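yo

u said u wanted the structure for the complex thing, so here. seqs first:
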Amino acid sequence: MKRSIVSVFIMYIFLSLIFLSCQKRETVPAGDKTIKVVTTLFPVYDFAKNVGGKRVQVELLLLPGMEPHSFEPKPGDIRKISDADIFMYTGKFMEPWIEDVLKGVPNKNLLVINTSMGIALAEDRDLAEHHKYEKKSGSQHEHHHEYNGKDPHIWLDFSNAQTMVENILNGFITKDPANRDEYLKNAEAYSAQLSRLDRQFQEVRASCKKDMIIHGGHFAFGYLARRYHLQYLSAYRGFSPNAEPTPGNIIQLIKNFRNHHLNYIFFEELVSPNVAETIARETGAKLLMLHGAHNISRSEWEQNVTFISLMENNLKNLRIGLECQ
Amino acid sequence: MTIVAVEHLSFRYNSVEVLSDISFDVTAGDYVGLVGPNGSGKTTAIKVILGLIKQTKGMVSLFGTKTNDFRDWRRIGYLPQKHTHFNPHFPATVREIVSSGLFSTKKFPKRIQRFDEASIDEAMKLTDVADIRHKLIGELSGGQQQRVLVARAIVNRPELLILDEPTTALDPEAREKFFQTLMGLNHNRNVTIILITHDIASIGKYASKLLYLDKQIIFYGSFEDFCVSDNMTNYFGEFTQHLICHRHD
Amino acid sequence: MDIFSFFQYEFIWRAVISGSFIALVCSILGVLLVLRRLSLIGDGLAHVTFGSVAIGLLFKQHPVYLSIPIVMASSLAILKLTEKAKLYGDAAIGIVSSLGIAGGIIIASVAGGFNIDIFSFLFGNILSISQAEVLTSIALSIVVLLSIFFFYHEHFATAFDEEFAKISGIDTRKINAILVLLTGITVVLAMKIVGIMLTSSLLILPSVTALQIARSFKSTMVVSSICGIVSVIIGIYASFVMNLPTGATIVMANFLLFLTAYAYKNAVQRKYH
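structre next:
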């Protein structure tokens, strides 16, 4: 009996070793002078690519299609971070797992960039809305905030995005001061693109007949709505799409939709648009996507979308949805 | 009428001979006590008779038909050995459990008809569980539970009832009541009974025949014959033989 | 929120109708599953569904259509493990379940990602049910109820004492297979319609509640169904009035029903002892 147990173990270990040693190991070509950057979210990835240009190799931790709010890093991810020169993330509220992971990373030369440095995070604005709503119906109850009530979706306000670009720029300059001028030039060019994007939004906004966004997704567009003076209602109170909406949430959206005589509601990327569809069925609304750019799908990846192109698409949809010129 | 006929039955398992050239007949109305020490092949013999396992050598027939070709299983009731197969907290009433003995033999769709109701009531009456028909099985004593299972085994009105050590978990009083029930079935309904038991002393009180098995047949015949046999005195010793026979008077 | 506005929203109606039918199916299957110690099969098969959806997305086939046969095969595998590998239901479920989710994660990794988040795809929500899903839940109910109804006595006999059932001529392997296959289909469909938390708890709680107070097997089935449906309706209404997440509220309603039944049983028992 004991002999068979031992032989099973030996067989298992033996087979595993054979299997694992046959795996291809990625080898870095010698003399590779590019800076290896690992990023967490798609905007950070895209900004880093634009600022670093040919001098950097940027990798995105999130697999296409993966929802970022419940992301948990695998051992392979930790190794990737460890092998990198620079690791860039959005902020401690978007990626709360950062601190623990970094503790386990042995690379002392790893430069860690928190791209949200210098950006003032907004409070849970939905909470403010929610308090108003609660007081009206007279019920009081406790709230549970995932991230202490701070909205982590900073990149959707393009002035914040510019600050992120600056933080990224500083990171590259610190690691590679020799090519400082090149990075500066890239950053300026990209920042200008962001400014142009912002202006486009402002122009369109001026002519909109409606000023309310009803979103079947989670509360992601707080910053964008604030910047362009739009009202924004989302179906989920929390910041993560895995929360459950209450009947009250849905009814509130339906009521607002009707009161403001809207014709369109928006759904979010990557997640099944269940709630948006429910509201659409109830109200006859037409659906449009508002892409939060947290992460992109496989087909978007293959189409080489960029942050700017995603936002331009958003603008196109907002234009239709808010009935602007 | 011969109910069970066993001819030169042998059973071998993993080069161990469990049964060796057994032959015996059971006639209608017999109440056979099948006894023997642990591992003597009693349960094996029963399983071969019931066609649950296949013999190595020999032939077994039920109601005149070879076991292989026998199809009329409704004529046989069987109470297997480990009776706590069932979960005692199962939410079934006595009546539901007794009824479940009926349905296997019914064709689709399975409905209880009036005569079925009569069978169920009769089975419960015979086993003295009619008063507790609406109680859950978990609320009954061990003895009552066993009687319910007997009721389930006889609701189809079998002519042959085979029980494998049905009283091991029962206290003396319950055991007594259980044997009374079987007696009633055997005397009043002419149900042929084969009962496997360790308790050679108390089986003597009820059974009409004794089949003592220890890989081979040591004895098969009426109790009277057992008690006067010198061979048996030699085999068991005077004290044991007296113990068995004393109870039979 | 006044009671009149409760009735004016279509999505609430669909939640009530679809939720009730799914509760009915789960409550009835649940009785048989709980008695055979397979109560966590709902969770286990949900994990398998995750893996099968990953496979479906990998091969660009419609994931739900591919899921159903894979999940049904897995439920048979669970059955086989309890028979052949001498395991109790919970261990068998654990094996298949871990395999499902690990397989799904590996496939997702190897595939290099998908176009949608798998979790969101799998987990429906009782407040966002479509017309088609209402019809599906009704069709599912009809299939499950008919199967259980026509084989009621076989299911009873097999669940109560499998050996005796076998000896008395019932094809217990067929009956066991029917039970787990029906559970498989139910889990895949119900998960997509009302989400896994609700499906899993509806497979367990109503029957456990019924077991506290029922006085026969038939009444266990009936009480379980009633508990399931009542908890759905009360849960939806309560979540409406108190503005709470609906699925979780239904689970709470179920649990409160259980507590009530348990307290009642204890009170009654105390009277007699």
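Chain B has one domain: 2-221+241-248. Chain B has a mean pLDDT of 84.
cya
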